[in-house]
Amino acid sequence: MNVESGFGYGTIGADIHVFGDGTPLYLLELWRLPRTPEAEWLLESPSRMLNARYEVADFTGREEDLAQLQQWRDSRPRLAARWLHGPGGQGKSRLAAEFAAQSADQGWTVVTATHGPGTVHPPPGSQDLRLRHARGVLIIVDYADRWPLTHLTSLFSNALLHRSGMPTRILLLARTDATWPAVRATLANHEASTSAHHLAPLSSDGSEQRSEMYDAARSSFATFYGIADPSDIQPPAPLDHEDFGLTLAVHMAALVAVDARVTGSRPPSDMAGLTIYLLDREQLHWARLHGDGTHELNPTERTYRTSPQVMNQVVFAATLTGAVPAPTGAAMLRDLGMADDVPQILADHGVCYPHANPAIPTTLEPLYPDRLAEDFLALTLPGHTADYPAAPWAPATAETLLTAETLLTAEAAHTARTGAITANMPTAGEVSPPPYLFRAIPTLTAAAERWPHVGADYLYPLLKQHPQLALQAGNAALLALAMQESADIDALEAIETLLPNGPHADLAVGIAAITHRVIGPRLERTDSLRLHAVYRTELAERLYRAGFHEWAADTARDGVEIWRRLAEATPFVNGPLLASSLNWYGAYLAELGKREEALATAEEAVALNRRLIDGDHATSHDEQSLADALGNLATRLSEVGRGAEALAAVEESTAIRDRLAAGGVRFYVSEDAKAQLNLGSRLADQGRTEEALAATEKAVIGFRKTVQVNPAAHTFDLAMALNNYATHLFKADRLADALAAAEESVTLWRRLVLKRSLGHEQGLAMALFNLGTCKVAAGHQAEAYAATDESAGLYRRLAARNPATHDERLATVLGRLTTLLQSEERYAQALPITTETVAVRRRLVAADPAAHEVGLAQALFDRCMMLSECDRELEARFAIQEAVDIRKHLAGADPAAHLPHLAQALYVLSLLKYNMHDDISDVLNTLSESMVICQRLAAADPETFTDAAREVRATFEELLPEAEGR
Question: What is the pLDDT of residues 273-300, one digit of tens each?
Answer without folding.
Answer: 999 999 999 999 999 998 855 444 455 5
